[in-house]
Specification:
Belongs to the glycosyl hydrolase 28 family. It holds the Pfam family Glyco_hydro_28. The protein is mainly beta and 222 residues long. 3% of the residues lie in helices and 52% in strands. It has one domain (5-112, 134-218): Single-stranded right-handed beta-helix, Pectin lyase-like (Pectate Lyase C-like, 3 Solenoid), CATH 2.160.20.10. The protein has one helix spanning 20-26, and strands spanning 5-6, 13-15, 30-40, 45-49, 57-68, 72-77, 85-97, 102-107, 139-151, 155-160, 167-179, 181-186, 188-200, 207-210, 216-218.
Amino acid sequence: MEGCTFDVGDDAICIKSGRNEQGRARAMPTENVLIRNCTVYRAHGGFVIGSEMSGGARNIYAHNLTFIGTDIGIRFKTTRGRGGIVENIFIENVDMKSIPGEAILFDMYYMIKDPTPQVAGSKERPVSPAKPVDEGTPQFRKIAIRNVTCNGARTGILVRGLPEMSIKDISIENAVLQADKGLVCIEADGIKLKNVTLLPTSTDPVMEVHNSRNWCRSPPAC
């Protein structure tokens, strides 16, 4: 897909592969996809994978994208019951402006109310109970994003995995994100930030990290 312009009422460039049991039974991942030189105006998401990704998605390369006024910029979404593995995704050279939601979003609670909301006035986040891992447990892993700018968003980066299945091996490099909030990360493993500048406009902490491990931010060197 190349040289396209989108102005739509839902997600714009959206990768799917079937929903829940039917998608897993079909077992055909969306793979080997090249997306380049596209512009998105109105949309729920600029570049999106999910939430119907139960057959999996892999080996996808997207570059030279512009998002203007999309609700969310780069969006990965799923929920318990979907299953499927999203991996080997490479995104680079993305410019965004006037994003009402998140510039970069990984969310495993799509269309589900947060089971453990923060207590008003507290920065502590209650522990969310894990559920057994089964064929309906989705996975996001091995995703690289580089050369990204965002001028205006609610949150620069939001990562929200499941307690039983962290979002894993995410690399974000060479990014400048101006947003109300900087970064919020919950249930992640192996997040690497290199040359990432967060410019929040609020007085909240620039980075909030909960129940996550194997973090690396450079400089200093990882």
